[in-house]
């Protein structure tokens, strides 16, 4: 059985700016995310990090190349069970409380969130237990982002993709937040890919992928980038 959760070959992504002009965001990207990977995806704004994460998570399709999920199953099975996603902005549902937002993947997967204690446990782990009944409009940006991470982890996915998860946190809170994430994943085969500008976060990951004008440059050992 392969250890590869995701395989991308020759990935390219083009967009149009509303005119006839074509903008190329990804260029000929080869990548593999294996079980247990800890990958920091770094590079300047506009280099293609978010687009690559969205393609890895099945939220977007490449214009060229192929993407497959050999360790996760079919495309239809990816979410919410196999992949947990954290967006650059928290993307919480405004009508749901913090606890309900965290529990949502369990509900979508057919579980009973009223009897499953995972959501409450994760909220406590992230220091957010007292916010369980708060609506998103009552939360700070940093609190909402921590809740979004708890939501991504609640169902026990095989792959977590996070886009700038510490972007709205001060350095001390970001450090504690990332401690919690890594501690939660310790000893598991769950792969974690984090797009980040935070060097302290990137330094704690085993592998570094660097985006440069849509190209993925080879990083430290532990994963594959070409």
Automatic annotation (TrEMBL):
SUPFAM superfamilies: P-loop containing nucleoside triphosphate hydrolases. It comes from the Bacteria. The keyword Nucleotide-binding applies. SMART domains: AAA. It holds the Pfam family ABC_tran. InterPro entries: AAA+_ATPase (IPR003593), ABC_transporter-like_ATP-bd (IPR003439), ABC_transporter-like_CS (IPR017871), ABC_transpr_LolD-like (IPR015854), P-loop_NTPase (IPR027417). Keywords: ATP-binding, Nucleotide-binding. Residues 6-226 form the ABC transporter domain. GO terms for molecular function: ATP binding. PROSITE patterns: ABC_TRANSPORTER_1 (PS00211), ABC_TRANSPORTER_2 (PS50893). Belongs to the ABC transporter superfamily. This is ABC transporter ATP-binding protein. It comes from Mesorhizobium shangrilense.
């Amino acid at each position: 059985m392969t250890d590869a959760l995701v395989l991308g070959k020759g990935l390219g992504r083009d967009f149009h700016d509303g005119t006839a002009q074509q903008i190329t965001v990804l260029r000929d990207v080869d990548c593999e995310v294996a079980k247990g990977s800890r990958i920091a995806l770094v590079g300047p704004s506009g280099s293609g990090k978010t687009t690559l994460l969205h393609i890895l998570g099945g939220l977007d399709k490449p214009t060229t190349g192929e993407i497959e999920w050999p360790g996760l199953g079919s495309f239809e099975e990816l979410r919410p069970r196999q992949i947990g996603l954290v967006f650059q902005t928290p993307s919480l549902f405004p009508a749901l409380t913090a606890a309900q937002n965290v529990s949502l993947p369990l509900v979508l997967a057919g579980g009973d969130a009223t009897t499953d204690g995972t959501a409450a446990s994760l909220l406590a782990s992230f220091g957010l237990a007292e916010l369980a009944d708060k609506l998103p409009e009552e939360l700070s940006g940093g609190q909402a982002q921590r809740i979004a991470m708890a939501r991504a982890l609640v169902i026990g996915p095989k792959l977590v993709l996070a886009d700038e998860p510490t972007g709205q946190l001060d350095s001390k809170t970001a450090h504690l937040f990332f401690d919690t994430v890594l501690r939660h994943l310790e000893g598991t085969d769950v792969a974690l890919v984090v797009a980040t500008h935070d060097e302290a976060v990137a330094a704690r990951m085993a592998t570094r992928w660097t985006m440069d004008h849509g190209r993925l440059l080879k990083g430290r050992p532990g994963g594959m980038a070409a």
